[in-house]
Amino acid sequence: MLKVIEGENPDPFDDDLVTLLLQSLFGTAGSYPIWDIFGNQLNVFASPQGTPADFGALVMGPCLVNCAGLPNSPPNGPGFLFYSNYPNLEYGSNGFGYFSVTDGSLTVISGIAYSPLIISPASYSDITFTTIGQVPLTVSQSATNVGSSPVYVATVALIAAISGTAHPSPALIPVSFFILSPPFVWSPGVTITVSVTYTFPYGVALATSPLGIIFT
After folding, report:
1. In this structure, are residues 44 and 20 in contact, taking their beta carbons and an 8 Å threshold?
2. Which of 132, 155, 122 is closest to 12 using CA atoms?
3. Dihedral over Cα of 18, 21, 24, 29: its sign
4. Largest CA distance in the chain
């Protein structure tokens, strides 16, 4: 192990994923486009009713592993992508920051060999009815610089797959992205492992009480 880079972000989700979720909650999905990692505009709808022949209604995703028709690693499947530069800085009422890896022309680093993406717990059934409270979900992947030169990693993004009724070939969209400042120098032949843990509330935890108190 050459170096450990640790960090914590209370809201790590990419703007494109949040946009898709919020539009679905408000019933306005498709009104505002999102973009895939190649800069293609996607008008994703939450319902098949009245959807135009664009992306159509969402039928898969966001999917990270065992996604139909895709490998479990980049560059053609979900996993962690490495970029040599940063997204565009965006300005808002409370300052400025990064919203999405689709904001700007980011350069994907080539010459990388990936292991399959791993999620722990391995399935949803390993979570349900076994844990109450904060449930950790860890996504990890190893990758090796198989090129002949060092590369500089400025941004890392977790990519997921979605597909639609009018777009059966899956599209890859960003789920989360992480800024490395200064950039990390990745030497040839070196394998690194990226591991991200998301924490989700599951169930409503109650204080334990003796049975005699509950039934009196």
Report:
1. yes
2. 155
3. positive
4. 74
Q: Name the token pair of 102.
A: 């689709």
CA distances from 188 to 15, 108, 145, 152 (A): 33, 16, 5, 11
Tokens of 162: 């979605």
Q: Which of 20-34, 69-83, 134-148, 161-175 has the weakest average pLDDT?
A: 20-34
Distance of CA 171 to the CA centre of its chain: 13
Retrieve residue 118's tokens. 């791993």
Compute the Cα dihedral for 124, 127, 132, 136 and give only its sign: negative
User: Contact at 8 Å (CB) between 181 and 12?
Assistant: no
Q: pLDDT of 101-139, one tens digit each?
A: 999 889 999 999 999 999 998 877 777 666 677 788 899
User: Which three-class secondary structure state does DSSP give residue 124?
Assistant: helix
Residue 126 has phi, psi (to 5 degrees) of: -75, -10
Structure tokens, 63: 């999917």
- Give the pLDDT confidence of 55-102 residue by residue, as tens digits: 888 888 799 998 988 988 998 999 999 999 999 988 877 888 889 999
